[in-house]
Amino acid sequence: MNRRMVKLTAVVLGCLYLSSCGLLGLDGCDSKMDDYRDKWGSPEEVTAYNSDGYHNEEWWYWSKGKNVGFTWGSDVSGCDVDTYTFTPIGQLKGGEE
Question: Which H or E element spans position 14?
Answer without folding.
Answer: helix 3-20
